[in-house]
Each structure stands twice: as C-alpha cells, then as structure tokens.
Amino acid sequence: MAVYCMTLVVNIIACLAWWIGGGYGVNFGLAILWLILFSPCGYVCWFRPAYKAFRSDSSFNFMAFFFVFGAQFILTILQAIGFSGWGACGWLAAITFFGTNVAAAVFMLFPAIMFTMSAVAMLICILRVHKIYRGGGGSFQKAQDEWNSGTWRNPPSREAQYNNFSGNSLPEYPTVPNYPPGNQWP
Q1: For the chain, which terminal residue's Cβ has fewer other Cβ atoms within 10 angstroms, N or C?
Q2: DSSP state, 182?
C-alpha cells in the first residue's frame, strides 16, 4: 500500500513535468485525483476486508478483497501502460513523449517503472492470499453460504457456531510435564 501511494506521489511530479514539457494539464489533475482517492480507498476497500477475512476466516470478506484488489491490480496495469489522458505516466506516455521533451520523458519513466513494480507486487500478493485462502478450505460456495445466512455481518455468531460442539478440542495431556529426576533421560 505504501509503495503504491509513493508511486502516485511520484506520478504527480512526473505529470507536472509532462504538463510543463508540453503535455496536457488534465493528466496532472487526474494524478492528484488518483492520489486523493486511492490512498484512503485502498485501506477501506481492500486492506480492511483482507484483515477481517484473516481474522474471522470469512470467505465473503476474502471475495470482497479479491474483487476490489483485483480491480486495483488491473487499474495499476493500465497505469503502467500509460494511456494519455488517464493521469498516469506509464510506458506508452513516456516513450511517445521522448519526441517532444526528453527531460520530461525521463521524469515520466520513474512512475512507469514504479507502476510496473507495484503491479508485480500486487500480483504476488493476490497469489499468496489466494493460496492461503484455498489452503484453508475457502471456496466461492462457502462465500455464497455466508452471504445467504448473514454470518458475514455478525462474526461473533459465526464463532459461536464453530464453538458450539461437544467434547474436548485438545487431547487429554497433563498440565505439568513429568520429567525424570536428575535430568536422566532414558
């Protein structure tokens, strides 16, 4: 998250250089909008569902994370590509601007590299979270069941469902280990 926010800050500086070098001001304005929107929204929209998913083992929250983080991953790829008029200094924008202003284009390469690195890091993150999710028995069907039963809204009732069983959850072991006297092991 911090790397992506730093990328957006560097993108603002590069879009300013783009604008000064003869580009369009709309890119600078959109770069500011991306920073203002995606910094807090990243926390609320994908970090929070991931935290809640890991905390309560909620398939619904995992699905929310995958949907929102996947959308941000795709947007980061588009920003790395760098379509003109999107407010992102990506590869296309930087390479095509070399013919207009070399100094501004060099500044524009920094966010292109950083967007690419962010997209790779996001891909690794989403693959790791998916591996943990699937390794824990999560599925789309489980998320649908949570949605239909409403347990995604009330984690304490979900925990109560799992805690409502008869019998011991741990094997019967003595609470204090019994060691041989004098540190003599057989």
Answers
A1: C
A2: G
